[in-house]
Design goal:
Length: about 70
């Protein structure tokens, strides 16, 4: 399933970031925490919340809970 609009692409990019962060977290290195902590400490928490919302969005999209596009 390909992203079709800007919201799909934003959610997809967040999912990729989340997958990379999770892979790095398994190896005991929290990439988002190291990258975003110098900027603002709560920023990495906000990014993880956005990643979770993006995951829920894609689950809903794949499950067909989102209305389909009417254009061919």
């Amino acid at each position: 399933m390909r992203p079709r609009n800007a919201l799909d692409w934003a959610a997809f990019v967040l999912l990729l970031i989340g997958a990379f962060a999770w892979g790095a977290f398994v190896t005991d290195v929290n990439v988002l925490d190291r990258a975003l902590e110098p900027i603002a400490d709560p920023l990495d928490d906000a990014v993880f919340v956005l990643i979770a919302l993006a995951g829920l969005y894609w689950i809903a999209r794949v499950a067909g809970l989102r209305p389909r596009d009417t254009c061919p």
